[in-house]
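INPUT
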Amino acid sequence: MSAEQHHHPSPSQYWKIAGFLALVTAIEVALFYIDKELELGAMNAVLLVILSTLKFLTVVGWFMHLRYEKSLLSRFFAAGFALAMGCYVVVLAAMGVIVIRGA
Amino acid sequence: MADVHAVETDHEEHESTGVSNLKLGMWIFLSSEFLFFGALITNYLLYSNRGGFTGPYPAEVYDIPFTSVSSFVLLMSSLTMVLAHNAFSRGDQNGTRTWLFATAALGAVFLGGQVFEFTEFIVNYDMKLTTNPAASAFYVLTGFHGIHVAIGVLLLLSLWGISRARGGLSQKSGLNVEMVGLYWHFVDIIWIVIFTVVYLLSLPPA
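OUTPUT
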């Protein structure tokens, strides 16, 4: 068995992780319909962003094995994400699509 | 055949960074893809509910139950991909082939769903690429994602075909399985963002 295998999850753990991802997706879809009835507004948006972030990090960490890799790879990956987020949040704020308080 | 079945995952050439050049290059490429898809998502957000154009707008015609099932299919393809990688690292060539094919099949199902969705929007709702800027932004974003999925399906089928033809993937192919896996999972995480931002959170013009 390689050194890598000692750290990576087993097939049964992967199935559990996939079940968790499916559950979070189901909650997201349920929230979409709850919002239609109850008009949760900003709270709906915040909850959906939190849930999709959770799915994003789960896939990156466990399925892409980033949590088991050298930190160099995490830094490169995070840098690209941060650069994109920073760049496009500025564009969206400048165009008035998102409002930054105090700006 | 012995070399074909002697499979390890820690066979990569290591450079001064401690990570193989191919793997480092792949992570940098994926990182740069955030900028590509970020631009397309931003474009969609800029135009998704900007009024003054003829409809329909994408948010008026979405079929959320259908897209939820498509999203579930793509999410589960990440599971089959990681199981393929796991089977390969255990030297299970049959398992690797099975899970690679399952991943490609799920990707093809997702693509079929996207073709069906586009057809529905164009034929039943008359929302074409040039109907309004929101529709253009929607088709360009999801279309480019679909192209990425199609490339992934071709890569998966290539690995599957090579494995079938040679009776298994060689030790050297280990890194290829891992790289295709990384690419596939990345396509999945981009869809996680698109599903939430484009489908669940977008509103038509007031």
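end of record. Residues 3-69 of chain A form one domain.
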